[in-house]
Design goal:
Number of domains: 1
Order of helices and strands: HHEEEEHEHH
Low-confidence stretches: none
Number of helices: 5
Shape: elongated
């Protein structure tokens, strides 16, 4: 089974093309090596997936080429204990101290500009 199809079925990416882009971009490592989207994946393979700031390390437990419910998708892999602990720790840190620039997306809106202007004027 192709790795991009498996990543899509396991719900790591919303579309198969996004999964293929991630594999091409080096965000997915199979058994410690970069791979191509058409690379065959087998049960027992080690997989490292990075999506945004989140990174998963797991072992493939089952294969599926159909995207089903999340409960079925979670049965396709087994996340390592170290990976789970690292993700939970990272989530706790982000929850306590949110980075202010994280909420800024592109140019300010007219409302944002007015609020900023009033704040700078001391109103």
């Amino acid at each position: 089974m192709r790795i991009d199809k498996w990543l899509w079925a396991a719900r790591f990416f919303k579309t198969r093309s996004l999964a293929a882009q991630a594999v091409d971009g080096g965000k997915v490592h199979l058994n410690g090596e970069r791979c191509k989207p058409a690379r065959e994946i087998r049960v027992g393979d080690g997989l490292r997936v990075r999506a945004g700031e989140t990174e998963w390390q797991m072992v493939v437990r089952a294969l599926s080429d159909r995207r089903g419910p999340a409960s079925v998708a979670q049965g396709l892999y087994e996340e390592t204990a170290a990976s789970r602990a690292r993700r939970e720790e990272q989530a706790a840190v982000l929850k306590l101290a949110r980075e202010p620039a994280r909420d800024i997306k592109g140019r300010p809106t007219k409302r944002d500009r007015r609020l900023l202007k009033n704040w700078q004027a001391g109103e």
